[in-house]
Sequence to fold (271 residues):
Amino acid sequence: MRQIDVNSDLGEGFGPYRIAPDAELMPLITSANIACGGHAGDPEVMCETIALAMENSVRIGAHVGFPDRIGFGRRQIPMTHRELELMTVTQVGALQAVARLRGMTLSHFNFHGALGNLSFSDAEVAKTVLRAVKALDPTLTFIGLPDTEATRAADAIGLPVIRSFLADRGYSAPGRLAPRGSDGALISDPAAVRERVAETLATGRLRLTTGRTVAIEVDSVLVHSDTPNALTLAHAIRAGIVDSGCSIGPFAKLSRLSPLEFGDIERGRPS
Fold:
């Protein structure tokens, strides 16, 4: 039976503020993407979220976003490639340090909001942030949308990739989320989310906002923790996975052999 991971972006509070039911969501997922000080999160929140993951035997990873707490990382911040590189390793490294203090290691990483969208569409940004993570820790798995510059970049340099499906978001094209505020961009009805997950996993095809369907690979389904009915949607996603004939469980640990470096790819020869 095919096994599907359930991942969620957690630890997105800071100081005394908490914006999501992390403690209630943690038992419903298998991989936690923890904010690490950019769009949200701080050392105390990171430590608290790691402890929740330990209690529930959930894998942990870094959720990297633009340093924009006021905009919750959903605004694109102009940065040089050097700044993007340093921002990425600083955030991942911070979570690694807190995890190590608590006897845990990271298994994966992903990108949040505007940074994620930029990495999906901009090949040079994707190369920059993915190479930065690989330089820091080449064992980390990238959880990202399939058919994007980011997943292509990760594949190219040999980082393991888990292809994630955002069940509560509309897609305008393969690898492209419909802009927030547009028709069909947000799907909040639990019954619709459950049906969408079941259909996509069972058929291997994703229904776009246009009504057209396209092929899609899915290894994991995302639960947005900051959605007002996140707990209900998490149960709907789990039910949809079961409806499709799949089981729920953490993603398989993958590896890549003989990865190519970007310079060699551009010159057309293997490393």
